[in-house]
Amino acid sequence: MQLLPWPSRLRSLLLSCKDKASTDKIHALMILTGTITHGNSYARLIATYARIGDIVSARKVFDNLSQRGIHAWNAIIIAYSRQYCPSEVCGKMDEAVVVFNKMPRRDLVCWTTMVTGFVQSGRPIEAVDMYKTMQNEGMEFDGVVLMGLVQACASLGDLRLGLSVHGFMIRTGLPMDVMVQTSLVHMYAKNGHLELASSVFNKMPYKNAISWGALISGFAQNGFAGHALEMLVEMQGSGFEPDSVSLVATSIGSCRSESHSKEDPREVDDVAGMKKMMKQTGTKKVPGYSVVEVNGELHAFLMEDKTHQHHEDIMLLLNKLDQDMRAVGYIPRTEFMLHNFEEEHSSEQR
């Protein structure tokens, strides 16, 4: 390997590293040639260790730097926040927060990484809080930040903030690519605003399979199975094949629609079949958030989550409401639920 022009070849060499052994060799050569102090070499090395899943080595490089520029800070935050790493230690947003709070200077990259990292880690409230902090500090926004925020709004069911973000994009003329527009379709559809979802979808100059799936699932989950089936046919006619999520959502929607018109023992079999298909294909129903606003503060409740500080008091109240509803004749129907509610509460139904 020629050492000249070594620094100019560093990026391509690091990108070619596929495992720890090859990365360690490049790291050693960087130390021997003094390249570790050249430009943004250290940031690229941190990113490479993170990409192969070795977050420990990435952190060691960061900790051993005598002077840390903004690129090094961003690289370690990205290492902690991204979900692409095969190692279990990656995706640690709490560590990313610690590093973020110690940064002497912050740029758009680190803010964007934090917002999207919280969204990808299933922590939408923190993503919204980070966005509000950005606003308070006068930071500019780009399409990536706003796309992450739209996804957070979809998870939280916060349509008011979602509308505000969409309006901000339109007013400021921010470019909305297929990913941003698909996130908007998903947000509106998930919140039951199918006209708005359809409006965004119809104005998209380019649509991919995810775009189609977002609207189809929205129609199916909101009781418009017939329309969802029509869109499945239209989707195929446009050259896209529906994924398992779209098919399952439409099938379940059809079963629900049918159940309103007649009782049929085959309904439970149909839903059981969908559950079996989801298990075989690895398709999972994404846990949803319920959000309650109390005195200007959002409280999110994830299905089967028991971490809220008032969980026991809330459950006592919900159990009392359940007993009161049953006392006046209410009988819950659980045969169409896609989680294990039936198994958990079967003893209560006997």
TrEMBL record:
<dbReference type="InterPro" id="IPR046960">
    <property type="entry name" value="PPR_At4g14850-like_plant"/>
</dbReference>
<feature type="repeat" description="PPR">
    <location>
        <begin position="208"/>
        <end position="242"/>
    </location>
</feature>
<dbReference type="GO" id="GO:0009451">
    <property type="term" value="P:RNA modification"/>
</dbReference>
<dbReference type="GO" id="GO:0003723">
    <property type="term" value="F:RNA binding"/>
</dbReference>
<dbReference type="Pfam" id="PF01535">
    <property type="entry name" value="PPR"/>
</dbReference>
<dbReference type="InterPro" id="IPR002885">
    <property type="entry name" value="PPR_rpt"/>
</dbReference>
<dbReference type="InterPro" id="IPR011990">
    <property type="entry name" value="TPR-like_helical_dom_sf"/>
</dbReference>
<protein>
    <submittedName>
        <fullName>Putative pentatricopeptide repeat-containing protein</fullName>
    </submittedName>
</protein>
<keyword id="KW-0677">Repeat</keyword>
<feature type="repeat" description="PPR">
    <location>
        <begin position="107"/>
        <end position="141"/>
    </location>
</feature>
